[in-house]
Amino acid sequence: MSRIKKLFSDTLVIALGTFGSKLLVFLLMPLYTALLSTSEYSTAELITSTANLIIPIACVGIGNGIFRFAAEKNANKEAVFSSGITLLGIGSALFLLLSPLLLCVEFFDGYVFLIVLYVLFANLQAVCAQYIRAIDRTRLYAFQGIFNTLCTILLNLLFLLAWDMGVTGYVLSVILGNLLTTVLLVFAAKLWESFHVSMVKKRLVKELLFFSLPMVPTTVCWLITDLSDRYMVTYFCGSDINGIYSAAYKIPTLVILVSNIFMQAWQFSAVAESSDEESCKQFYSRVFQGYLSLILIGSAGLILLSEFLAGLLLHSNYHGAWEYMPTLLCAAALESIVSFLATVYMVKKKSMHSFLTAIAGAVLNVVLNLLLIPRMGALGAAIATLAGYGFVMLLRLLDAPRMIRFRLYLPRLTVSIVLLLISAAFMTFASSWRLLGTGIAVLLILGINLWPLWQCLQRLLHFRRKKDPK
């Protein structure tokens, strides 16, 4: 199977699995926002965000390492898995020893056990899932996403609707969903056959740590970019406003969802094809051309529809969240471009470059949060997030192509981002001319990016007709 066809096939399988699961979550957003007050929703989001901040530290970033090393064509996959699970066990044991420190944070009073369980089961599920993806069990990888979501939703309905457990029920449903998904992966892939203590190699453990450890602060930096918003909005504006701001993230998550679906398939293809440098350069250029168009067109369309979607998906108490969505959608578009550039560092095993660029964005984000939130409220947090991702994108656009010299389509990229920012400004600040100004900017983005997207699709369709004539 050619690399283009393989990439398309994997993306389609993962998309079917992921969209199915995420669609269920979006359809239940009105239920969640109806059953949880803005303050409760804010608390639940802060608990899960804090747990997500601890997750990469507790697992020493080993999920990324397992995928990167096991996905190589000639890798000893069982040795990678055995060494990775051993490192995960050591990291989890250290986390358990240090977890009583969470009791020092007054906000987490009564919720520490939830954070600990969330971290442990999320890490175990993620490591198993990354190994499944690395050994090319794409269908199982996609299915486990649907299974996880279904379990979480059913448990949410039980804990929130039937038993009225509030914040505890909301978080506990995610924990049990991860646990049940891990059990599914272990039995479906017979993962016990891939783990052998005798295959834990000292050299491989060192290589995994050398690659994975810089990914820990990188992931933490991204989470700080997200989490600092929530904490500072809560501190300066109150938990009710933070609940509304947290709900505003749900629509931009659609852009990140599309990006993540593609990235999960693209990372496997990028690693597998990394041996031939010239071929790798052409492959990156062609893929980036279509990916860029898709992200920009999708983000622009969602900006235009942001108020309508907020009214459709959120309870009336959260309707004001739409005012933050255009800015956060711009940030999501830039984050998606940043994620694509990160695959260069992963392929070349330059995780330190990923860390240095991410920390620069995180520092800028925190500084701008401190400056803007007291003056502009939650909108200031959205602007700070946008600026942080924009700065990282600029750094990586200057750095990543030196490792793999692929086309960046800079004129189209620059003009499209400027138009995206203009559309967000119209939607957020204009009144009578809001929809007209936003609509014109969106049409211009569509005009600039539709043809490159069609060219990409034509290459794929031409290839398929050539290989599979009817």
Present the secondary structure layout.
Layout: H1 3-27, H2 29-35, H3 38-58, H4 62-70, H5 77-98, H6 112-134, H7 138-162, H8 166-188, H9 202-212, H10 215-237, H11 239-248, H12 252-272, H13 277-304, H14 306-313, H15 325-347, H16 351-376, H17 378-399, H18 410-429, H19 434-467
Helix pairs in contact: 1-7, 1-12, 3-6, 3-8, 3-10, 3-11, 4-5, 4-6, 4-9, 5-6, 5-9, 6-7, 6-8, 7-8, 10-11, 10-16, 10-17, 12-13, 12-15, 13-15, 13-18, 13-19, 15-17, 15-18, 16-17, 18-19
The arrangement of helices and strands along the chain is HHHHHHHHHHHHHHHHHHH
Q: Please report the distance between the alpha carbons of the first and last residues.
A: 18 Å
User: Mind summarizing the main beta sheet?
Assistant: none
**Shape label:** globular
Mean pLDDT: 81
Count of helix runs: 19
> Count of DSSP E strands?
0
State the share of residues found in helices, binned by percent: over 70%
Number of domains: 2
Structural class: mainly alpha
Low-confidence stretches: 463-470
Estimated radius of gyration: 22 Å
Note the beta-strand portion.
Answer: under 5%
